[in-house]
Every structure is written in C-alpha cells, then in structure tokens.
Amino acid sequence: MRVGEGEIATALRSAAVRHEHQLFRHRLGAPANGSLPLEHDLADEQTWAAYGARNLVPATHVLPPEHRAAVEIEITPVDGLFEVFIAVVNTTPAPQDQLIDGVRPYEEAYLDTRLYQVVLTATLDVPVEPYELEQVAQSHRYERSVPAFGHASPVSHKEADGQTTLRTEFAATEPTWRGYPRRESSDAVGRQVPIATSFASLIADPVGTVSTLVDLLDVWVDDKWGTTALDALHAERGWNDKARAEAEKDATAARAEAAWVRAGLDLLHTDPNVRDAFVAANKVVQAAADDYVSWHPFQVAWIVGCLPGMVDPKRHPAVNIVWFQTGGGKSEAYLGLMLATLFYGRYTGVTRGTQVWARFPLRLLALQQTERFAKMVMNAEVLRRQDPRIAHTAAFGIGYFVGGGNTPNRLRKPDGSNYYNGPDPSDPATAEACRVLDNCPLCGQGLSVKWDDPTHTMRHICQNSACELAGVLPIWGVDDDIYRRAPSVLVGTVDKLAQLGQNQAFQILLGRPHSLCPKHGYSASPTWCPVFGCKEDRRPVPKGFGHVRLEIADELHLLDESLGALDGMYESLLQKISEHLKNDPFQIVGATATIEGYQNQVRHLYDREARRFPVNGREAGETFWSTTRKGDPLRRYLGVRSRASTMVTATREVAVVHDQWVRDLCDDPKSVVAEAGLDATDAEIVEEARRAGEDLFEVLVTYCLRNEDLTSFVRDPAVRELLESEDNLAIINGDTSPDVIRSAVARLRNPPAHKSERVRLIAATKAIGHGFDVARLGVMAVMGTPTQASEIIQASARVGRRFPGLVVNVINPSRDRDASVFRYYPEWIRYLDRLVHKVPVNRESVPVLKRVLPGGLMAWFLQVLDREWITGGRRRRSLADSTAFRDAVRDGVLDRALLVSLLRHGFGIDDTSVYHRMHREAIDVWVDDQLATLPFRAEAGKRLPDLLHPSVPRSLRDIEEPLTIYGEL
Ligand SMILES: [Zn+2]
Ligand SMILES: [Zn+2]
C-alpha cells in the first residue's frame, strides 16, 4: 500500500518554489539550436540578459522540476504476529518524463531526481517483537535480537512512555569497550587476592605462584558456574531449558579448563626438568622484556596448561588454541611455550637440531614476528651458555624460513661453470637481500650481513664488542644454510611445507641428518656434502640431534579455502612421515582471532581435536582472565553508506574531511575543541587536542578488501592532492617489499620532524591486519564489509591500541552482502567475534587430493625411502632421478602396493571406509598411470618431479591451475 504521495509532492513543490534561485533555462529549439554564449555575452548582467532573451527558454516559461515520494507499507502475518515493512519510495518521474517548459523534456544531466537526507520516523503505541539474528551463535550469555532491520539505512529504536519510535539514520554507530587483564580475584574465604604473575615470583617459586593462580581459578569457577550461581542466573535471565543446558555445558568447559591448567601445575610440581625449563623460560622473557615485569594471567596459565603436551604429545594430542581479544599478548604466550620447549629438550638429552617451527599464513607476519622470536631465542642462547648443564650443547639459533622471493633459497660462489647463474654471494647487494634483521636482537646495535667463504654461509654479525653475543649470530635466512645449521627455531610461512616434496634436506628438520661436514654442517645425502665440490671427510651426527617437536600456527583462521586444504594435506603428510621416522607426534598450538569454527578447522588441518583457551565466561568479555570496563572506550565504529557515489569515492571524501579536520585541529585547536563540546577555555585541553592531531589522529588508515579498490583510491586525484610527497603515503599489501614496510613502520613510530617525510595516509589490504604494530594509529576507513568477521576484527585492531580509535566503515552500495550487514550494523559490530563463520577448509576434497599426490610421492621418496635405496646398492642415484625410479620399479623395490599404501597413509585415507572410496580410487588410478608411463619416459639427467603430473608444488601458493573446491560444510 502506498500512502502520502500527494501530500509529499505538494510539500516538495512548495519547498522548491520557496527557494530564490533562478531555474535552469534550456537553450531554445529541440535539439538545442541557440548559439552558445560568447565572451561578450558574459560581460555583465545586461549582456547576459540579452543573450538569454535570444537563446534561452524564457524564465517565465520554465516549470520547476517535480520531486515526488510516497510511503510504502506492507503488512505480512508471521507466526501470529505482523511484520511491518515501511519505506520511503522515490516516485519522482524520470528526467525525460518531465518537461522544462511544457514542451522540452529534461536531459538527465540537468535534473537530479534523487531525494537527499530523507528521514522516516514511525511511532507505535506498542513495543515491537524483536528479530533473532541467526547469523550470531545462540547463547545463554547475551541477546542476539534486533528490534528492527533497516532497509538501505540503519534504524534506531526507542521505547518511552508506552511508545516505540523507529527512525531511519544516516549512519550507524556502535562503541566497543576496553578489556583489561584481571589482576585480583577472591580466594576461598572471600578475600581479594592479587593474581601474581611476575617473572620474579615465577622464577623464585614457580610451583607456589602457579598454585595460587590455579586455586583462585578454582574458586572463581565454583563461584560463577556452581549450581547456586546458575540457578540465580536462570531466574534472572529467564532462560529456557535449552539456554540452561547450554550454560551447564559451558560450566563443564570452565571446570575442564581449570583441570587442564592444574594438570600442568602437577607436572611442574613433580618433574624437575619441566620446572627448570619453565623457570628458564621465565628468565629469558624477563631478560628480553624491555618495559614489563609480568605476564598476563592467561599467558602463564596457557603455558602451564600446555606443559603435559610438551612432555607427552602422544597422550595429549589436542591442538591448543589461544584466543584472546583484549590487549593481545597471544604471541608472548606461545613464545613462552617455545622457550620452555627449547630448555626442556636440552634438559632431557637433546643437544642440537630444530625443535620449534612457527608458521604464519602471510609473509609480512612471519617477517615481523621474526624480530620477536629472535629476541627470545638470542636471550635463551645467553642463558644456555651460562647454564652448566647445557653449556656444552649446540647454540640456540633461529632460521627465517619463508617461501622463495624474500631471501634466496640457495647461494653458490660463481666458479665459471654454467651450473650456477644465481647472484654472487660476496656481492654486498646479495648480502642485503639475505638480511633477516636490521639490529642485533640482544644489544640493539646494527648488524652486518656478510658472506663467509670457508663455511659457505651468509652470516649475521654483531660488531658490538660489548654485546654478549658479539660476533657471528646463530641467525640464518637462506634455506640452504637453515638445513645445514638446523637452528632450534624456524619462523616462516605455511607454504614452506611444500619443501617436503622438494628437498631431501628437509629430513634434517625431522631429526635425520645423514652426516656432518666439519666445515659446512649437516647433510641429508649419504653421497655428498651439500656444498658442491666439498671433499671433506664427513663425520657421524653427534648424539642428541633433535627434531621438530612443537609447531606453532598463528592466525589460524587465515588458513582457509585452497591454501587451507593444501596445507591440511601437507600437514598430514608431515605428521605421517615424521612418525614413520619414529619421532614423537608434534605438539601443535595455534592462535586465532575468531571464536567460532575453530574445531572444524583444526580437524581439517591437523586431523586432531582442538581446545580453545580461554573458554567463554558467563558474560561476553568477562572471564577469570580478563574483564571489560563498560564506558572505557576502545573503538567507535561508524557505518555509512554513500548514495550517489561509489564506495571508493566516498572513502576519498572521508580522507579529504579527515585531512581538513586534522589541519584544523593543529592550526586552530580551540574551534575544534569547542565543536566537540569540550571546554575551549581550558588551555590544557586545547593543547592536548592539538597534540592528538599531530600524533593519534594524524594518520588515516584506509583499508581495502580488494587490491583494485586500493589502486583506484590511491590514484584518485583528490587523494593525490592531500599528499605533499610520496613519503606521505604508505601502501601495505601483499606485494610490498619488507624493507618498504620496515621503513614505513619506523617513520610511523618515530615520525620525522618534516611534514613531507611523515606518513599521513596508509592504504592497506589484509596484509596490514596482522602484526603491523604502530600504537599511535587512531583513525581508519574500511572500504566494504569483509566476508569473514575475523578480517574486520584484525583490521580495525590497528587503531585504538592505546587510546580510543574511530573506524569509519564505508558500506559498498553495490554489494548485497554489505547492504545486508548495514541493516543491523550496530548488532553486527556488537557480536562480531561471535558471528558464525565456517572456515571453508575441506580436507576430504578429491580434487585437492589429486593435486597433492605427486608432492606426496616425492615426499616419501626424498624423506624416507631415498637413504635406504641409495645406500642399498652401488652407484645409485636419488629416487628423484627418473632412471633411479625406473630401476627401483624394475628391481621390485617400488611396486604398486607400496606406492598406494604410502599415499593412503600419508594423506590419511582410510583403507576400508566407504567414505574414502573415491579417494582410494583416485590414488589407484594415479599410481597405475605413473607406473605405466614413467619407466618408459625415464632418461639420464631427467628429474622425476619434472615427469609427474600435476607438477610438484614449490610453494603451497604457487600452484599454476586454480583449484576449485566443492564441499558440504
Ligand atoms: Zn649484539
Ligand atoms: Zn662440506
């Protein structure tokens, strides 16, 4: 039903008549044939009037254009209630249907038929029945209701004096509040006791300190989750049976969490090696920490909870996920566990070899985390040297292990032969390309990077003679050096897993070097030293060579779709091969930003159960570990939808307004302070506001979901005009080189005095959402709404770190998804971390399996079968050589049954399950194909991987054919 059209049209007409401007006068004739005005026509009023009289429709003939609108109302019965839809409909006739003078139609360019600043208010004398938001996980913890949905606009809702008022709004705002770690809690007799987590007290009395914490946790759990407490909540929140059952489930989870931490405490109590390793980890963090003296309670508890998995991963295989929204600190938690693992290994007989592998889905993230990791590892090395029990073992070192492109994978001295055409390692430019860190992680002084011929390695050298680690640091950035030195800790990208099917040397990381060259380090090959032409006598590997025992997977939620599916398959291969080599299972820990969907994801990635820490509290934002201070602002989200412009253009306008506002704030802070409703006579406030303009608000971060948006934004002339120099703009996306990012971060943290050198605008994609750590950023514009809630959580966490931040979310008017989110924008923000998001990973996909079979085959050959094959006969080459493969098939060393079983085992394909029938068939067909054709295509000098189809990936990202994955999730 449409109402009010006549009334609205009349009102609009009288508004149009009231204004004093001259109406547009078309040129005479149709098509226009009056002449265009010349310069003398524009000389003054008179000449212009004369021109108009000759060439334009007389002013008296011009009719004002018409604007019309109506209110559309639809009423639908739903479940015994009525759903009411009310909208303003623009019924203005199109320009070509309106006449300028009763004769000539308007041209589109001259008549804007849009209606601006429309507000619709509806008043009811009854309360509205709210909608349930199905996108939000159901919970006894909070409402997930929305009183009304907006339609192309947000809608506000007020109930007062028995009346309900719904009103459309131009923008939707939603504040979020800051969370803090809990610092004290009640003990069993109700006294408030501090939760002690200082490094000093954990070093002096680890068992006592952790006992106090766990006791307080138990009291908290009893107090908040006991039957009495639940009964009270039940009554207060009016739970139904389902909500009560859910609350009981959460209560059980809370008790299980407390028991999980206590199990770690017991181990701390009974196993002196665990205790010593835990204390050593605390000493290292204490030494490495610049400005803090204690952990957050959740960090200590999580590390302690992970200890049983560190000692006996077979009995404790669950993947432990740390999730923490407030103030971060996830990295410190897993760094703490990493340190405990390093020392525990050494105290229990491991003398050398790689122990920890931290993998990140993004290069940028790996790079930024390397600094943190290196600081911890180098401090651990200092402590190791001082610890008589382990001083004789190999140094703790770190390797930066990323997909090609960042640092070279292998270096060789040019020797005049044609075998090597890579860069000359003694060239300083090559050394720079291999640089992992700018400064010594220990003393902070600049590092030099130099090629060393005798050891054939690219070295990071600290030249500060006062530094405890002065000299060559155990830091490696070239893959080849990493394999030969087997540093204790690897930090890198997920896609490096592909090396499993590429490089025989990978088995060194799995604890299986063949021998040690006194000059060049470990070798995986029974035949050669990895350095070409080396004639040294190789020695047996020293006792106690370890293997990777802890895997750290950060930003787990980013491992999705094809990367996640491939990673899942390779992960499975890695675990199976490692177990085949008689290693204990890895302990796997992870960090994630989303609270839902992790179980499914971990099952697909690792084929294990997952435990998230911490579990939910009774209220969102309230756990034993942390508390939210309502009213202490964290960030304000502002959702806006542009009308007559694209999202990028609207964002440009945000940038222009921001720029002007910051200038005003710096030049005329008084006016801006007054506009904001603050006391402009208070000199202190004015000065603080001015400083905020130079510091907190100076930089606008624009976040783009797509690279195309970023490109059109930074090319916009109005945006270019805001910039004095290229230095004013920092572009952060997947293609940005690490040194450009480092330089931008440095200029953001310590802004240069000169305006033209300061970063004032950041244009970024997803790449900035992780670890781009600049505490002063305060304002952000987000273009569009990401499909994954985690993405906007991560992105917007860049602003408001220390002081409240503002996020302007520009809704993309041309995307349905954005339109739908805009309908309930405040709720979308409020429930952001509870939005159900099934991470699209499917390890059971047959196309993915087919894609990984060649890599799987090569992995078994290189990491497992090769050594026995090569040493089992005279003059045998690696199975990576096509003729060796042919000979092995001929000799019956490789046969169909073996290949099929290795592939099934490696990728977790069950031998009998009906569910895996298609998977088994795919493997059978592929193996038959290879056995039927490869032996005939084998040729001297031809590598086996080059004959395999599809190709063996070098990185999980560089698969040439896009992979389409279908699957029911
Ligand atoms: Zn140093
Ligand atoms: Zn050698």
Automatic annotation (TrEMBL):
Residues 688-847 form the Helicase C-terminal domain. It comes from the Bacteria. CDD domains: SF2_C (cd18785). InterPro entries: Helicase_C-like (IPR001650), P-loop_NTPase (IPR027417). Pfam families: Helicase_C. SMART domains: HELICc. This is Helicase C-terminal domain-containing protein.
